[in-house]
Amino acid sequence: MLGGNENEISGNRVTDTERYGIALFPAFDLGGEVWMPDGNRVTDNDVAGSGLADLALSTLSGAGNCFADNLVGRADPTDLESQPCDGEALEGSAAVDGELAISPPEAAARFDGFADAPDHRSFAAPEADPGLADPGLNLDDQPDRGGGGGGLPVGLVVALVASVGLVAVVAGARRRRAA
Questions:
Q1: Domain coordinates of the chain in residue numbers?
Q2: What is the pTM of this model?
Q3: What is the band of 134 on the pLDDT scale with cuts at 50, 70, 90?
């Protein structure tokens, strides 16, 4: 969750991600502003097979984040689920910072070839999943499946948000280089 505030991330199944299953970390804008995740509740998720950790929290996170009742193999920091959900700031991980809490210029340098990635429209559409919302309907019109947030997998949401932000960062860096 890139810089998100007051989100409920609940009832998701996230498997076999390259680095992190569900992670809360800050967003940085080109002006140096830091948008820290704050007041997010990560509960009742089933997360497994992540490369670095199934649940993760950056040290650059605000107060009020909560991780509780998740089924996971690894968390970073390791005691993430045992920290109280009392509105105070949780202790995050410097390792997560090094992977995810990076400035736009650093992101552009790390992912220089990212702008050359294939257009998302060139990929085949995924198979229908009866557990997900009907993409042809407004999410407000969807039946309540108890998963919170219309049933979109959190991994997809995080990937989309990160991709959009990274494309903007790379485009901005290239414009600056051209000037």
A1: 8-123+132-178
A2: 0.63
A3: low
